[in-house]
Design a protein that fits this description.
With about 230 residues, the chain is of the alpha+beta class. The protein has two domains: about 80 residues, Winged helix-like DNA-binding domain superfamily/Winged helix DNA-binding domain (Arc Repressor Mutant, subunit A, Orthogonal Bundle), CATH 1.10.10; about 120 residues, no CATH class. The strands form four sheets. It has a four-stranded antiparallel β-sheet with strand order 6-7-8-9. Strand 2 and strand 3 form a beta hairpin. Helix 3 packs across helix 4 and helix 4 crosses helix 5.
């Protein structure tokens, strides 16, 4: 390990590695309400053999996730301390939120996921495809959170008759696409692109609120841009 690696690694990978197994997750979940349980009962809770449970438990103890309480010839396992209990509770909450988002995405009408408006710019699969192409072709440059249109981008605007006038503030910013879980571009420049797409009927509204249909004329626009339309 290099000195640079040592300086930036905080050591939490040992904890995440210990928790990143279904059997060990089941063991920790069985203990999450403050119980202390022997290895045999935890093996049953995790659905593994006693030998396998012993290996899992040792890994959790080594990572300081669990502690061992000995009483006579019996050994009981429990959550190591309140900090670990708080961490487990936070992970459970995060997993529940992610599961809820997955359910919402599963119920989402496919046209809305494919292409929709988002505060005046394009979102969904089509919005991500547009953003990726703009960045790849260096029509825009993006920094940490914001970006600007390049000279090449301004020439592209003129060729596509996109009404965009550069201003001093950022031309665009990153906006998280909640269905695709990656960023697309928002702001004055993406707004101007969507306005042109609507004006030229490259996209047309659907009965579903915010959803857009990509027309053949729109596909030609994205082909010229070199964007990969995934539908």
């Amino acid at each position: 390990m290099t000195r640079i690696q040592q300086s930036v690694q905080s050591g939490f990978s040992k904890i995440t590695d210990a928790l990143g197994d279904p059997a060990r997750e089941a063991i920790v979940s069985a203990l999450s309400d403050g119980k202390a349980m022997p290895a045999g009962e935890l093996a049953i809770a995790a659905g593994v053999s006693p030998q396998s449970a012993s290996a899992h438990l040792q890994k959790l103890v080594d990572a300081k996730v669990l502690s061992v309480w000995s009483q006579g010839r019996f050994r009981y396992y429990r959550i190591a301390d309140e900090d670990v209990a708080s961490l487990i509770e936070s992970l459970v909450d995060l997993a529940a939120k992610a599961e809820q988002l997955d359910r919402e995405r599963a119920r989402l009408p496919e046209p809305l996921r494919q292409s929709r408006t988002c505060y005046g710019h394009l979102a969904g699969q089509l919005g991500v495809a547009l953003s990726n192409a703009l960045i790849r072709r260096r029509i825009v440059t993006v920094g940490d959170r914001t970006g600007c249109v390049t000279e090449k981008g301004l020439a592209w605007c003129r060729s596509e008759k996109i009404d965009f006038k550069p201003v001093r503030e950022a031309h665009l910013r990153l906006c998280n696409d909640w269905t695709e879980r990656v960023a697309h571009l928002a702001g004055p420049f993406p707004n101007a692109i969507l306005a042109r797409l609507v004006e030229t009927r490259c996209v047309t509204p659907l009965p579903i609120p915010r959803a857009l249909r990509l027309t053949q004329k729109g596909r030609a626009f994205f082909t010229r841009l070199g964007a990969q339309v995934p539908f």
